[in-house]
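Fold this sequence, please.
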Amino acid sequence: MVEKLTAHDAPGESLGEDESGLRTSSLELKTSISPNPFNPITAISYQLPAVSYVNLRIYDAAGRLETELVNGQRDAGMHQVTWDASGLPSGLYFCRIEAGNFRDVIKMMLVK
């Protein structure tokens, strides 16, 4: 089975940035990707307000699933995962994070 990111997976929450540059939602989940653009490794950080089931996946520009970095329950607090895209071509990728009722999609640029 091939999973694809579709248009209805686009962010549905009200988003903004706080003073630290972290993206925030009305549900208080905070996410950031640093560096972005990146070559070939980047860190994806997210802060959970409560214990939540988290799913974090990376998709290519065509919407094909590249990898699943997180799939399971995580405690409240700050978390970070590293994505190594060494084997992938330069281009646009999407990080989709789901935690509880929250969903966000963040653009990432791999530049080699």
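The two ends are 30 Å apart (CA to CA). Confidence is low (pLDDT under 50) at residues 7-16.
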